[in-house]
Amino acid sequence: MFSLFLENVRIALESIRGQLLRTILTVVIIAIGIWALVGILSAVTALENTISSNFASMGANTFSIQRYEFDVQSQSEQTKINPIISYNDVRGFMSTYDFPNTKTALSFRATGRAEVKYGSEKTDPEVQVYGVNEHYLDNTGSKVEIGRNFTFFDIQNNSKVCVIGSDFLKQLFRDEDPIDKVISIRGVRFRIIGVLESKGSTFGNNQDLRVLIPVQVARSIYTAPNINYNISVFVQDQDMFDVAQDEAIIAFRRVRNLNPIEENNFGIQRSDDLIGRITSITGYLETAAWIISIITILGSSIALMNIMLVSVTERTREIGVRKALGAKRKTISTQFFIETIVIGQFGSIFGILLGILTGMIFAWAFEFEFTLPWSAMIWATIITFLVAVIAGSYPATKAARLDPVESLRYE
């Protein structure tokens, strides 16, 4: 049985070699559909993994107070302009909000174009500097790999200390231990107390090339007007999360002097909501990938059926000879089925390889976390097999029903 199958595969390959151009065109059409499916799903999976891991590191028990809600709106739809979250807002909130078992983190991005100096060495002017308090690292899921985090006293005493990203180990310190070394930012000297674990880049934003300094020190160095501050609250008890969030909304409404009938002029964003919204967006992209690939594969099935019908016509005399030598209908139909499946699987393999390559290039270009889309690859193989079976059914049946006498007369 197995030897008969191998013989059929050998005959199928010889037939494909005999009509190489038509076969290549059919394989390319099938491959384009599979390429669209696997390639888009690879890129979407890389995007989802990267963003989800970044937001998931914040923890499901964290919410933030920000200027706007996360909803994406066009400028024509966005009629209400919320005021920035100023330092007075932050100070008022932190002095009044005292919910049990919570940690409130305060931060702002001072600049994204800083130059950091260490001795005679210096970086390019592309370092991000953040002013933070002692809870910032815990609430954002950032971890210190070497050294320690800020303490309450570091923040309250406006100590000239800092925590740096892991890229500084390559650029400034190389083989040196950076702890207790002194770097200079805008002429202000900071003692390094910690180095963050590497987090990579997202959308070109290098999270490993940043310096964290106490918030008041950052405010004294960077005095740009209308600085928008970020507030995030971590709730240790999941059961009390909704209550803590409601209390935070009430407290911030008081800070903003809103009366009971006025709408919030700020946004509340939960970290798990962000993950859910990102998943829904990537879900649309996955659906689009399936639609594109199905339409393309439908076209390829028609092309595959056409090439097999032409093959049956061209090999009518061969079929007659095989039948005259005792070949049964089942043998003839099986032969054409195998040829169809072989062509389909060539297209599937080619499309999967192109899709994986596309996903890898996309992940490399945007520095995402690439993973093989196993489900898409398995489905691609199954779909092309089913398409080959369906497309080959009529040509195989037609070949099996040819009359041997008439087939031998065919020229």
Description:
The chain has 411 residues and is an alpha+beta fold. It has two domains: 2-54 and 276-409, no CATH class; 83-265, no CATH class. It has 13 helices and 14 strands. It has helices spanning 2-18, 20-56, 87-96, 136-140, 152-156, 168-173, 215-221, 241-255, 271-314, 316-324, 329-366, 374-400, 404-409; strands at 62-66, 102-114, 116-118, 121-122, 127-132, 144-147, 161-164, 182-185, 188-196, 201-202, 205-206, 210-214, 230-235, 267-270. Strands 1, 2, 3, 4, 5, 6, 7, 8, 9, 12, 13 and 14 form a twelve-stranded mixed beta sheet that branches. A two-stranded antiparallel sheet has the order 10-11. The longest helix has 44 residues, at 271-314. It is elongated and about 100 Å long. 36% of the residues are buried.
List the uncertain runs: 72-77
Strand/helix succession: HHEHEEEEHEHEHEEEEEHEHEHHHHH
The helicity comes to 40-55%
In total, the number of domains comes to 2
Average residue pLDDT: 82
Main β-sheet description: 12 strands, mixed
Count of alpha and pi helical runs: 13
Structural class call reads alpha+beta
Write the layout of secondary structure elements.
Elements lengths: L1 H17 L1 H37 L5 E5 L20 H10 L5 E13 L1 E3 L2 E2 L4 E6 L3 H5 L3 E4 L4 H5 L4 E4 L3 H6 L8 E4 L2 E9 L4 E2 L2 E2 L3 E5 H7 L8 E6 L5 H15 L11 E4 H44 L1 H9 L4 H38 L7 H27 L3 H6 L2
Parallel strand pairs: 5-12, 7-9
Antiparallel strand pairs: 1-13, 1-14, 2-5, 2-13, 3-4, 3-8, 6-9, 7-12, 8-9, 10-11
